Amino acid sequence: MKILGVKVDNLSLDEVLNKVDGFLEDNKQHYITTPNPEFLVKAQKDKEFKKILNNADLSIPDGVGLVFASLLSNEKIKERIAGVDLMKAICKKAAKKSWPIFLFGAGPGVAEKAGEKLRRKYKGLEISENNPAIFFVALGAPKQEKWIDENLKKMPNVKLAVGVGGSFDFISGNIKRAPQFIRLLGLEWLWRLILQPWRIKRILNAVIIFPWLVLKSKLMYNKNIVKNQ
Fold first, then answer.
1. Residue 226 scores a pLDDT above 60
2. pLDDT tens digits for range 70-106
3. If DSSP states are collapsed to H, E and C, what string results for the chain?
4. Full-model pTM
């Protein structure tokens, strides 16, 4: 499906992980994006970013706003998959399959701390700087997606690159994630705003600008349908 002209793959986490299996075994390079409402707002003005999102092998809905937006279409998103949850699930599989990973980005020391916690949680997980099969990039959007687009081909051993935003901060414990009940209520954005008030502009894009753009798009679509009848 597409929301505001951006591809969103409607898959469960298990279905995504089955796709990852294939990505690591087909001798090709792949990348996964994890769009949320803020991504889609940015993509309206950044054509390069929008093209990268639409060319991704998988575009996973990380944001309850995308689930709500899908209710206005004929296809409801099955499951919101947060980038940090996707990363953990891939690392769990990587530990079992002996796929080396690498963590790139975030603040000083954060990737190293996150990597150590992942190693302790998933026994057998290998973190390799020289020969990773999976490359997690945490630079924030759209920087991380543009970095992957520019650099993936320069790393032929990497079979899968994934943009994961603030996942390293959550995994390392640098930032506390919202409790489960808040996530289920779709209020994780409010939790982030309380912890990081400097994010106010980004939050406004997600909870005000994005819904308005979705509603506007739907109204224009309905208007065109009536006009063409």
1. no
2. 988 778 999 999 999 999 999 999 999 999 999 999 9
3. CEECCEECCCCCHHHHHHHHHHHHHCCCCEEEECCCHHHHHHHCCCHHHHHHHHHCCEECCCCHHHHHHHCCCCCCCCCCCCHHHHHHHHHHHHHHHCCCEEEEECCCCHHHHHHHHHHHHCCCCCECCCCCCEEEEECCCCHHHHHHHHHHHHCCCCCEEEECCCHHHHHHCCCCCCCHHHHHCCCHHHHHHHHCHHHHHHHHHHHHHHHHHHHHHHHHHHHHHHHHC
4. 0.91
